[in-house]
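Can't paste images in this forum, so I'm doing it all in text. The chain is below; anyone willing to post the predicted structure tokens underneath?
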Amino acid sequence: MLRVAVLGSGNEDSTVVPVQDENTFSVVAAPNISKGGETVHFRMVLRESAEVRLSIYSLLGEKIYSTTIEGQAGLNISNWETQSQGNQPVASGLYIYLVEVDGDTLKERRQGKVVVIR
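Text version of the structure:
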């Protein structure tokens, strides 16, 4: 059975995040298509406190951006301003994200895609 959590106030800005079993974590990138340099919000639900690394890659495998946060149990948000590590706007295109979680008992990774349209 699929369980979900609604993140937000219940309006159109809300995000539905699948909640998997207690041994995993969930991540949603919103918006999945960034128009005009719109910030992409990575919403992650963790079952325990953990270090969370977010990395963004081009389709050629070049690391464009990375950041690390100390995530807490529950909802965590990491934002990508659609800029490179050197604070330059990235080009329009498809990007791959990788979220790695390293906690006491939670060590997992998820990947997905985000489109940037300038």
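The first strand starts at residue 3 and ends at 7. The chain has one domain: 3-117.
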